[in-house]
Amino acid sequence: MQAYVVWWILAAVLVGVELTSGTFYLLVYGLAAAAAGLIAWLGAGLFVQLLTAGAIATLGTLALQRWKRSTGHPESSVQDLDIGQTVAVESWQDGRGQVKYRGALWDAEAEASGVDSTRPLVIRAVRGNTLVLGN
User: Fold this and answer.
1) pTM of the entire predicted model
2) Cα(134)–Cα(69) distance, integer angstroms
3) Are 11 and 28 found together in one domain?
């Protein structure tokens, strides 16, 4: 079997598996294998084929990592949407309790000892699954 056929089969397998994962890394490696197959079809030696595949895979991986960093959203940004929202107190005692928020009961704690549970409580921070509340 010719080297370019092996590279193209590898490329097809990698792209096919990528369709199930959705990470784009296997797509980059599939493109690298397809490029190496093209180089092999043009008559280049094994060293040049491997160099081509390695260079494209490396550059593609670096580009994907940079793209992911620039478009990634840390978890805290999702929690930031909760900060400032008012909650309904279900039970409260000694600075801890349960509150109703977004249709569910949440564990809650006061941000300071002077928090008055008879006044409206506002989310000041989120620690895991516990809401930190203040007035």
Assistant:
1) 0.55
2) 33
3) yes
